[in-house]
Fold this sequence. Notes:
Blueprint lengths: L3 H11 L5 H15 L12 H12 L4 H9 L2 H4 L4 H8 L1 H16 L9 H12 L2 H16 L6 H21 L3 H15 L1 H35 L5 E6 L2 H11 L10 E7 L2 H14 L8 E2 L12 E6 L5 E8 H9 L26 H11 L4 H7 L8 E5 L5 E5 L4 H8 L1 H5 L1 E6 L2 E3 L11 E5 L16 H33 L6 H6 L1 H4 L4 H9 L5 H8 L5 H6 L14 H5 L14 E3 L8 E3 L11 E6 L3 E6 L15 E2 L1 E3 L9 E10 L4 H11 L3 E8 L5 E10 L2 H12 L4 E6 L3
Parallel strand pairs: 2-5, 11-16, 12-14
Antiparallel strand pairs: 1-2, 3-4, 4-5, 6-7, 8-9, 8-10, 13-14, 13-15, 17-19, 17-20, 18-19
Helix pairs in contact: 1-2, 1-3, 2-4, 3-4, 3-9, 4-7, 4-9, 6-7, 7-9, 8-10, 9-11, 10-11, 11-12, 12-13, 18-20, 20-23, 20-24
The protein binds manganese (II) ion.
Manganese (II) ion (MN) binds next to loops.
Amino acid sequence: xxxxxxxxxxxxxxxxxxxxxxxxxxxxxxxxxHGAQKRASGDPYFSHPLEVAAILTDLKLDDATIVAxxxxxxxxxxxxxxxxxxHLFGPEIGALVDGLTKLKKLDLVSKRAEQAENFRKLLLxxxxxxxxxxxxxxxxxxxxxxxxxxxxxxxxxIAQETLDIxxxxxxxxxxxxxxxxxxxxxxxxxxxxxxxxIEARLKDLETNSSALITSIERxxxxxxxxxxxxAEVKGRQKAPYSIFKKMEHKSIAFEQLSDIFGxxxxxxxxxxxxxxxxxxxxxxxxxxGRFKDYISTPKQNDYRSIHTTVVxxxxxxxxxxxxxxxxxxxxxxxxxxxxxxxxxxxxxxDALSQESRAYQWLRRTIEMLAEGDSPEEFLEHTKLELFLxxxxxxxxxxxxxxxxRGATPIDFAYAVHTELGNGAIxxxxxxxxxxxxxxxQNGDEVDITRAEGQSPPAAWESxxxxxxxxxxxxxxxxxxxxxxxxxLGRQIIARAFERAGKQFSEEKLKASLPRLARQSVEDxxxxxxxxxxxxxxxxxxxxxxxxxxxxxxxxxxxGEPGWFGLNKAASLVFKVPGKDEVSPNAIPIRGLxxxxxxxxxxxxxxxxxxRIVGILTPGEGxxxxxxxxxxxxxxxxxxxxxxxVRWDLDEELHEFFPSQIIVNALNEPGALGTIATVIGEEGAxxxxxxxxxxxxxxxxxVIDLQVHDLKHLTGIISLLKTKSVVSRVERVNG
Length: 734
Ligand code: MN
């Protein structure tokens, strides 16, 4: 295990100003925290964070990153806390360790291959600071290097995850060296036979052709030296995994692979790269289609080099990568390589600012570097601002759901499945009950509670952020409203048939659809419920021979009020029924939240205890009026719109109903207060207050209020009349 002084030495080798005391304190703290914990290998656990730190010293990273590596498993695996680390090592290191703790939790989540891309985005979004990712990658590398100690059944999952997520991430960060090793270790675990085969063949080839590699190296170096180009030429075998991918991709056998060897030419200046290409292309014939200039057009991860393949000595195909020292370091170490450039000259001093990449953060770090910031500062300020417009959440089964920022559990539910959204009645976020309108955070695990037969409240439509949720809510609300209208329509039609002395059946109605010019029974029911079609028309459509005159000429059936009818003649015998005359067949009316589309008379409303009548209004359903309402005379000549209705109340609900009163009160301070107090103390709600007919001493106050029933309302009116500031109270419509 690495000693305390060895860690300090490693850092001091590249950073003479390293904070020795800080490194020592971190070493001792982590050693004590992990105590007697052991790794799967049997080694003390503490050896792991030390090895991770060592990998990062190879990348020459700043003190905070090294210390964070030493501490990276303390919060999750020991009794250490964020507060304690903040206190002992400062908030910067605290934040790094905290980020690593969050990432570690993600290791427990199952990931499907097709979600790898989203998962990488999640890592980036959670990491928040590029240094967290660097430690995470080093952590993964050490775990992969020691994977053979882990029980076999766990190995494949970890290796697959490394191949799917961490190796490509290293690649995107430009860290080719790290990527190669992660891929090779995963490949070895997942396909040990293929790996062994390729490795054996490479070994064979190496003994046979090491002389060839050396001679090509020498020949090329001399040719370049003759033109005055100082270059370092190095031949190498390709990594087994990249050979495997090529074999798989092109479905060719090992023998047919031409570029198992690659040569790298590293020069000082950018112009030298092009001079090298000139020399090589003059000396040997090129293989068509293999020339690529990634210097003038760098890859997204800032990789820059010139690639070419030539037919070299002995008709051997030789692949060449030509690059400067800086390009080489960026290719090998990616973002970490930027820490090497402390003089602020920038990368080869050329116009990097023109380059626009998908991975803007990388470009930004390079720009910051070019502006002369110290590498420590630049690493510290490199927040991963990418994907800030997205959040990534999980289902309880570990499926990853990507949502726009600001999304709620309702959006989440609809993203999983429309039925889940429609039935959502509650949710748990990370195991805790939370409101359905909470804003989701990265990494949240969301568990939606659903109930059958629910439909989403229409108000959700304006509260969700995803188009999918919005469209589904709109559709569900429309369906629910249509169902309400159809329910009302069915009742109206059934009663109309009854009065006509006919039996209503959907079968018969179905046969008559063409006559009504509608597509379905439901269409007819909804149209009648909405007041767009009259029930009499439906009766006539089903029974064309029906003569309603016969019915209207006769006296109303016993127990049936005579003031509704199928034609005008009937409505003209309008009479107020006695209290006992309410038809048992009348349509039952609940409050506003019942299953029928009900409204109350616009001026004055109606309350239980009132005898009521329904007026069918096209597009609105039923409007309920107290039978004494003067507004009803307006419908006298439209008898088909009159409906027989009755109250059907659930006593338990203590619902409120709208009513209106006019209070004539003294025009003096406190009068309105007195009135409001009476109403409030009686347990009624005031909806709206308006002053009319102001005179100097008295004024009329129109008050919209919600009461439980007629008794409640009358009680309030009586109480108001006892107040000295009140001279007169009247119910509107009453
Ligand atoms: Mn670890």
